[in-house]
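Protein folds are increasingly written down as discrete tokens. With that in mind, we are printing a sequence and the tokens encoding its fold.
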Amino acid sequence: MKDEQRTEYRQKSRERNRVREENMVEEQLLNLINIGCRACPRRCGVPMTLQSE
């Protein structure tokens, strides 16, 4: 019983960490896009680094 609970807790904890990490990565990407757009006169929402001229 105890071992099962411990394993379940670890799995849930791992899942929470994974979700948190994904959210952080997404946030960083959005920040990069916003910075790119502030520097760009077109402000189309596509970062300059991803635009093909």
